[in-house]
Amino acid sequence: METLLQQIVNGLVVGSVYALVALGYTMVYGILGLINFAHGEVVMVGALTALQTLLFLMGVAPDMAPLLKLAIAVLVAVPVCMILGFLMERLAYRRLRGAPRLAPLITAIGMSFLLQTLAMIIWGRNYHTFPQLISTDPLQPIDGVFITPVQIAIVIISALMMAGLILLVTKTRLGRAMRATAENHRVASLMGVDTNAIIALTFVIGAGLAAVAGVMFASNYGIAHYAMGFMPGLKAFTAAVLGGIGNLGGAMLGGIVLGLVEAVGAGYIETMTFGFLNSSYQDIFAFVILGIVLIFRPTGLLGERVSDRA
Prior knowledge:
- The chain is globular.
- The protein is mainly alpha-helical.
- The protein has a single domain, classed as ABC transporter involved in vitamin B12 uptake, BtuC.
- The protein is built from eleven helices and four strands; from the N terminus they run ααααβββααααβααα.
C-alpha cells in the first residue's frame, strides 16, 4: 500500500508538469489544427534560460534569498520563451496556414531539431546541475509516503496556472476571441477579431506555460540539458491526445492520468513482467496508451472541441 501511495504522489507531480505542457499543444491545435512538435523544446529553453539566470545571480548577488533568485529566473525565462513562441509562429508557421497538413508538421519537427541544435551550441552537450533553491528534504505525511517541498510547490503552482488559463479562456474578451477564432477563422475575422494576433497570442501563452513547466521539471530532477524537452514534450502530446486534443480540460485530465499511469506502472512493472523489465522502462506506458487511444478512442477521453479538424 505504501508503494502504491508513493507512486500516486509521484504521478500527480509529474502529471502536473505534463498537463501544463499539454495545454500548449491543445491550444495551438484547437485554433490552427497544428501539432507543434517543437513545443517540448520551449520547455528546454525555459529551463536552461532559468539556469543561466540563476548562475548569473549567484555570481553577482550570492546573498540574495533563494526563492527571490528562483522568482527572478522564472520572470526572465517566461518572456524569453514567449518571444520564442511568437517568432516560431511568425517565421515558421504563419506562411503555412493554407498549405497541406504535412508541410507544417514537417516544419514543426524541423523547428524541434533546430532549437535542440542551437541549445547544444549555446549551452553545450553536457548535463548541467540545476540549483536546488527549494528544500528537497522529504516530508512524510503518511508512514512510508514521502513528498518534498519542491513537489508540493509544483502541484500547487500547476493547479493555479491551469485554473487561471481556464478563467482566461472562459471569462475574458481575449478568451472569447480565442474561442471564436478556433470555431471559424473567417467568420471571426469578419466580426472584427484580429485572428493573426489571437493565433500569435496563443503561441505566446503556451510558450509561457512551457517555460514554467521547464523550470519545474529541472527543479524536481536537478538537471538541465539541451535534449531535456524532447521526452516530456512527447509525453505531453500523448496526454493531450489522451484527454482529447483541442480540449483544455482534456489536456489537464490527460496529463494527470498519464502521470499516474506512468508512475504506478513504474512501481509495479518488474512484478508485472516477472523481472524481465524494471522501472527504467517506464516510458513504455506513455506510448502504449497513445497507441490504445488512437486505435479505440481517437477523440480522447473528453472528445474534441473542434471536430472538423480531427
